[in-house]
Amino acid sequence: MLIREATSEDWPAIWPFFHTIVSAGETLTYPLDLGQEDAEGWWFVPAPSRVVVAVDEAGTVLGTAKMNRNHMGNGSHIASATYMVDPAHSGRGVGRALCQYSVDWARAEGYRAMQFNAVVETNTHAVKLYQSIGFDVIGTLPEGFNHPTEGYVGVHIMHKAL
Questions:
Q1: Residue 97 pLDDT class (50, 70, 90 cuts)
Q2: Res. 32 pLDDT band, cuts 50 70 90
C-alpha cells in the first residue's frame, strides 16, 4: 500500500465510497444528502491542510484522509483528521495506515497534539483503532449524534499528544 497526495483526478474513485459512508449516516457529521460537487469542496481543503489517498499496487484507491488544523488562531497548534476507507477494502489495515500517516504528518508539521472532535461511540472499530495508536477519549458529548438505527448516541472527543 502506498499513501500519496490526493489530486482532483482521484475524486472519481473517492466519491462512490465517500457517498456510501456519508449517506449511511452512521459515522460522520456530514449532511446525509451532501452532493458530489459540494463534497469534493469539503474534502479537498487548501494548504496547509492535506488530503492523501491510500492506493494498492495497481493504483486502486483504498481510502483517503483529510488532515487539517483543528482550530484557527491560538488553537492552531492542534491538528485533526478525518478518514474514509472504501468498505470493499476494509479489514486490510488501510485505516490504521492512514491514521498513523496523519499522526506522522502532524508531528512533522510541528503540531503539539491531534484531536478528533466527534468520534461516534458506536463506531467501535474506529475507537479501538485510535486508542491502539495512542489516542485517549477525553470526553463524550451525550446524545451528540443521531444514529439511524441506534438513536441518539454519544460522540467522543479523542486526543493524542505529539
A1: very high
A2: very high
User: Could you give the CA distance from residue 73 to residue 152 in angstroms, rounded to a whole number?
Assistant: 32
How many CB atoms sit inside 10 A of residue 23's CB? 13
- Alpha helices per DSSP H over 31-138: 36-43, 94-108, 124-132
Q: What confidence tier does 44 reach under pLDDT thresholds 50, 70, 90?
A: very high
Q: Residue 113: left (phi > 0), alpha (psi -120 to 50), or beta?
A: beta
Question: Are 71 and 61 contacting, i.e. CB atoms less than 8 angstroms apart?
Answer: no
| C-alpha cell of residue 112 | 503539539
CA distance 61 to 71: 29
Q: Is the pTM of this model over 0.90?
A: yes
Q: What is the mean pLDDT of residues 45-68?
A: 96
- Placement of cell 504528518 in the chain: 105
Helical (H) or strand (E) element with 162: none
* CB within 8 Å of 80: residues ≥ 6 apart: 67, 68, 69, 70, 114, 115, 116, 117
